[in-house]
Amino acid sequence: MTVRLAAGLAAARAVGGLARATGRGGGTSLPGKVLTRVEPHAIERLAGRLSRGSVVISATNGKTTTAAMVSAVLERAGTRLVHNRAGANMVGGVASALAAAARRGGRELDGDLGLFEVDEFWLGPVVEELEPRAILLSNLFRDQLDRYGELDIIADRWAELVARRGARSALVLNADDPLVADLGRAAGALYFGVEDDALALPELQHASDSKHCRNCGHAYVYETVYLAHLGRYHCPGCGQTRPEPAVVAREVELHGIRSAAFTLCHGDERHRVELPLPGLYNVYNALGAAALCRALEVPLADVAAGLAAVAPAFGRAETIQLGGRPTSILLVKNPAGANEVLRTLTLEGRELDIFGVLNDRTADGRDVSWVWDADWEVLAPHVRRMTCSGTRAAELALRMKYAGVEPDRLRVVEGLEAGLDAALADGTEPLYALPTYTALIELRELLSRRGQAREYWR
Fold it and tell me: For a disulfide at 358, which of 60, 268, 392, 397, Cβ 3.0-4.6 Å?
């Protein structure tokens, strides 16, 4: 077994070196795929070498950012992490991160604690190998229906996993998401949530997903809606209510694309967090990160300080200089996530130049009908110019026309590189790039070739 693991690690390193030499980057999942082909239980064997065990983060939206926040808190305290920080979050990506940290044929690891974001569909198999000490489950939104099916399929898989884990992993759950909250009602979970009625939306958004009680099937009644189907709710049929969160965000302030602020509360402690990331969705990410760190017994003051120092992951509201213009890159991949990005952009208070890239490759989901469910209408009055690119560029332009953007403000340039250059050339004010997942990867590779992006893999 030791010989097989050592051979797998040697093969993984060779493949990783070749990937870097050809410009594919070290964050690929390919080394991990090679490793697990040679030694199927490599994740279990390597993770067992971590002196402080592992923690896992899963969600439809925000996994990469939440993991970056947890990393900022823990590394500030001196923890040496093994972390799939490049965002490769299936079996191969987790195995790649462990392989990169392995020393002496896998007998030692260069790290104390494993921090792994895991794709929501692959959570079960990865958790069974990792045996994590804590699991953070943050949200479930409709995403890639052609690949993953309806939300209840993922929720059922997560419920089975939670039941199998029992008390072997501490659970950290979002109280404001009914599907997620239900997972911990009998498991003693640590819940987090927002409590600030000033943020309330007038009604559930069109893209809201979890509207019915899984216990009795009755429609939930919402006292407050914060984001998509996240909020304060109860079921008039069986009486089930939102769990009381222990880790809470109060007095939330949203400052457009630049930042957000909130008061982080746990028990009798309160700390003001100046978060250098925008939007309510990042407040939720920060809350999840804070709750997970509290489950690891990190002092709340240290959590708040770490959150204030977090840097954005690539494509998650990072702003870089391109062609002399500040360019903010914000991933959009499903209705709920897109709506929060659009909501944040409307706070900018200026006419906006947008570079939208809509792809329909396998990792995006071939079905791009989700763009018709996202509320682009809120953005339309603010658009000065929008350049549409990607494999479905024309459909994105059509959606924006129906949202109310005048046709002379829209331009279709299908290729990503040509589209980016066209968008950059048309103006001097900030540019806002909204790519889907594979477009984000393409954009990162393009900027790396041009020497305009920092490395996100280690």
Answer: 392
